[in-house]
Design a protein that fits this description.
Strand content: 5-15%
Distance between the termini: 137 Å
Strand order of the largest sheet: 3-2-1-6-4-7-5
CATH architecture of one domain: 3-Layer(aba) Sandwich
Number of strands: 7
Structural class: alpha/beta
CATH superfamily of one domain: SPOUT methyltransferase, trefoil knot domain
Order of helices and strands: HHEHEHHEHEEHEHEHHHH
């Protein structure tokens, strides 16, 4: 009896597959066409080399986005924030410490060193510091702290605190670094280090807006001068980079605040609040603490440049009204 799809017979598996499923068609892959021969083989080789170079550059650029920045790189731009920091050593005594501080500055990319009343012999010997001779050769010397910080809108002193009764806010180094970086984005900042023997005096501190301290062991607070410079600059170099925002009011510089302080002190002497020192230019020791208090008071006001100029104008007008003989020599 015949079998098939119309007779109700059974299929054989091989025959069923043959009837209802088309045979597979195998298509051989097409070979890519060869580029036409180039008339100038040398020009073709140059073109292919240029294409290869472009591909490599594109690949390198894409890979840079996938990897973190170099571990040796600093977040500080060498021509912006770091260029606005002034490291100031007040009365340094040891040439090795001066050289170590300068070496640390060179390591971290801070290139403006200022020295106030250094021991001359120590400063001359320090100029031969290994790896920092060019930086020391450009170092600036000043007679007073006021002159050294004149162009800065923020002055920060360093201290080990100890038993001293400080009249300034004191911040830990890690907190201070972020605040300094924020100000460096727009204006110069001074970082003061005192002498190895006594640190910063009260008069030196009176020029500061606030102080920082390195967190050290209570039993051994003070650090070597060169080490302290290195630790502070490392923290500044590794602090997160800040985006510079335009300030609504430009802060007054230290020179403007010092002019305001001097005029205010003259007014207080004229009123009898402060006693005039004998001999005119000679300063009485008893008046020094009061003058330091006034200087700190002026800096706590955080005056803008506009407000400082306005206050100076007010004081000058008062002196002018009191008569020409009452006007301080510096203002006449």
């Amino acid at each position: 009896m015949p079998t098939g799809p119309c007779k109700g017979g059974n299929f054989r598996p091989g025959w069923q597959a043959f009837c209802f499923y088309p045979l597979p068609v195998y298509v051989s892959p097409r070979r890519p066409r060869k580029p036409p021969p180039c008339a100038r083989s040398h020009a073709c080789s140059e073109l292919s080399a240029a294409d290869e170079s472009r591909r490599h550059r594109s690949l390198f650029t894409s890979l840079l986005c996938c990897f973190p920045p170099d571990v040796n790189s600093s977040p500080l731009s060498p021509n912006a924030e770091s260029d606005r920091l002034r490291v100031i050593l007040v009365a340094p005594r040891n040439p090795l410490n001066i050289g170590a501080g300068a070496r640390a500055m060179s390591n971290f990319g801070f290139l403006h060193l200022r020295v106030v009343n250094p021991y001359e012999l120590a400063f001359r010997e320090a100029r031969s510091a290994v790896g920092a001779a060019p930086l020391l050769a450009r170092a600036e010397e000043f007679k007073t702290v006021a002159e050294a910080v004149a162009d800065c809108t923020l002055v920060v002193g360093t201290t080990a605190v100890g038993q001293r009764q400080l009249q300034h806010p004191v911040r830990r180094l890690e907190q201070a670094a972020s605040l300094i970086r924020k100000r460096l984005a727009t204006s110069p900042v001074a970082l003061l280090f005192g002498s190895e023997k006594r640190g910063l005096s009260n008069e030196d501190l009176s020029h500061c807006h606030w102080l920082l301290r390195i967190p050290t062991r209570e039993e051994h607070r003070s650090m070597n001068l060169g080490q302290a410079v290195a630790v502070c600059l490392y923290e500044l170099a590794s602090a997160p980079q800040t985006v510079a925002k335009p300030e609504k009011h430009l802060a007054a510089s230290a020179a403007e605040l010092e002019r305001l302080t001097a005029l205010l002190l003259d007014a207080l002497r004229l009123s009898g609040y402060l006693k005039s020192s004998p001999g005119g230019s000679q300063k009485r020791r008893s008046a020094a603490p009061t003058e330091e208090k006034i200087r700190r008071l002026v800096r706590r006001l955080h005056l803008s440049a506009t407000d400082a100029d306005l206050t100076l104008g007010i004081l000058r007008q008062i002196f002018w009204k009191l008569g020409p003989s009452k006007v301080p020599p510096a203002e006449s």
